[in-house]
């Protein structure tokens, strides 16, 4: 059995994406367990094939991971262009709308996803859904002083939600930019309608619905990777 065969779906899809990276590219690194596997696979190729890539990270944790793996990491504000952004997702619909943001770096994730020439999303089949919000609440990053007013407005549109707590459960969770996160569920609202609503409420910094951003979603399976291109 070859190494290719004994990879699990997340590893397989991570290696698949790493194989798309070319020499001298500037590559954005996502956050999460699948993004970590991509970082490892990219670092391996960069080392073995002397690709001389530059990377930029969506989070402090991924930057640490990348540096430990030997990848050069630059800060976002030093770039006016990136070739590729690669990240996982919590949900993917048939039209390639994504739900992201279980981590605390939504703003940087969306910034890199929208700025990159190509945005590749790495998932396994467990992330495929019919509609956004099917398995997870929608993360809404809010200015700390705005959270109650934003929550009240979202409730008027049928939203139910609460402030996200930190891992220890003894305080609210703060994002990398010092914002708070409302995890919101909605019974009867589609993702486009919800995106338009969230984009118009003052105090909302960013939200976890990524519409029209993915260039391709790669779905890792037991034997192969399925590609869905926009
Ligand atoms: O959006 C994210 C972090 O904000 C992650 O990409 C998403 O939660 C998927 O994570 P994993 O690859 O660990 O399943």
From TrEMBL:
Entry keywords, A to Z: Isomerase
Gene Ontology biological process terms in this record: D-ribose metabolic process; pentose-phosphate shunt, non-oxidative branch
Entry EC no(s): 5.3.1.6
Active site as annotated: 109 (proton acceptor)
UniProt: substrate binding residues: 31-34, 87-90, 100-103, 127
Highest taxon above the source species: Bacteria
Enzyme class: isomerase
Family of this protein: Belongs to the ribose 5-phosphate isomerase family.
Name used for this protein in its record: Ribose-5-phosphate isomerase A
Source organism (scientific name): Methylophaga thiooxydans
Lineage, uppermost ranks: Bacteria, Pseudomonadati, Pseudomonadota, Gammaproteobacteria, Thiotrichales
């Amino acid at each position: 059995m070859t190494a290719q065969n004994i990879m699990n779906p997340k590893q397989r899809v991570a290696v698949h994406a790493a194989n798309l990276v070319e020499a001298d590219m500037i590559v954005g690194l996502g956050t999460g367990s699948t993004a970590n596997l991509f970082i490892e696979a990219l670092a391996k190729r960069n080392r073995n094939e002397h690709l001389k890539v530059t990377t930029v990270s969506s989070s402090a944790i991924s930057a640490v991971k990348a540096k430990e793996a030997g990848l050069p990491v630059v800060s976002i504000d030093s770039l006016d262009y990136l070739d590729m952004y690669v990240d996982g997702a919590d949900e993917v619909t048939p039209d390639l709308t994504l739900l992201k943001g279980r981590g605390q770096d939504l703003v940087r994730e969306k910034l890199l996803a929208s700025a990159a020439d190509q945005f590749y999303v790495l998932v396994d089949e467990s992330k495929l859904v019919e509609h956004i919000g099917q398995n997870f609440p929608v993360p809404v990053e809010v200015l700390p002083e705005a959270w109650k007013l934003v929550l009240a407005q979202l409730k008027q549109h049928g939203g139910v939600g609460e402030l996200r707590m930190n891992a220890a459960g003894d305080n609210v969770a703060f994002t990398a930019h010092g914002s708070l996160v409302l995890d919101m569920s909605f019974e009867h609202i589609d993702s486009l309608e919800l995106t338009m609503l969230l984009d118009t409420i003052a105090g909302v910094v960013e939200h976890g619905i990524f519409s029209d951003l993915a260039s391709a979603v790669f779905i890792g399976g037991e034997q192969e990777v399925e590609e869905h291109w926009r």
